[in-house]
Amino acid sequence: MKDILEITKTSRNMVSKLIQGFTLDQLNKVPAGFNNNLIWNVAHIVVTQQLLVYKLAALPVMVSEEMIEKYKKGTKTEHEATQEEVDEILSLLHKTVAQTEIDIDNNLFQNFNEYPTSTGFVLKTNRDSMSFNNFHEGIHIGVILAIRKLV
Asked: What are the φ/ψ torsions at residue 2 (nearest 5 degrees)?
């Protein structure tokens, strides 16, 4: 699973670089035709990885229930993130992956609850969830690239 995590690390570094230099107003702006903003997409990436990789493995997540409720699948931007929230999201962007690496090394991913994704693909293993997470992050990198041009 560490090989898959290397892709996640690359994805997270890319996301971090893509939003560097944007102001708080720009991070919070929802362009016409979009439901969400840059910072929502970043937080959604963090939350989704925690749900797919940890919750489906019956392991504790590193994000608050409040954060999950704000940024899980099916949500949209409903508030402007404060600088403090942005800082927390950006910190979690990297901390969660670092912790995943430690947890892989400690062989914590022993259980898995099968999950049918909205794409129709059924996740059956921890490896599936990590691979699908990378696919999901790629989708949101595309959205981030599009929003960057409009803010």
From this structure: -65, -30
Distance CA(20)–CA(35), nearest Å, equals 21
Instruction: Give this prediction's pTM.
Output: 0.96
Tokens of 127: 């490896």
Length in residues, the chain: 151
Alpha-carbon Rg for the chain, nearest whole angstrom, is: 15
Query: Could you give the CA distance from residue 100 to residue 62 in angstroms, rounded to a whole number?
Result: 10
Which H or E run includes 26? helix 24-28
Which helix (H) or strand (E) segment holds residue 115: the answer is strand 115-116
Residues of the chain scoring pLDDT < 50: none
- Taking alpha carbons only, the member of 56, 48, 9 closest to residue 140 is 48
DSSP state of 52: I
Instruction: Quick: pLDDT tens for 25-60.
Output: 999 999 999 999 999 999 999 999 999 999 999 999
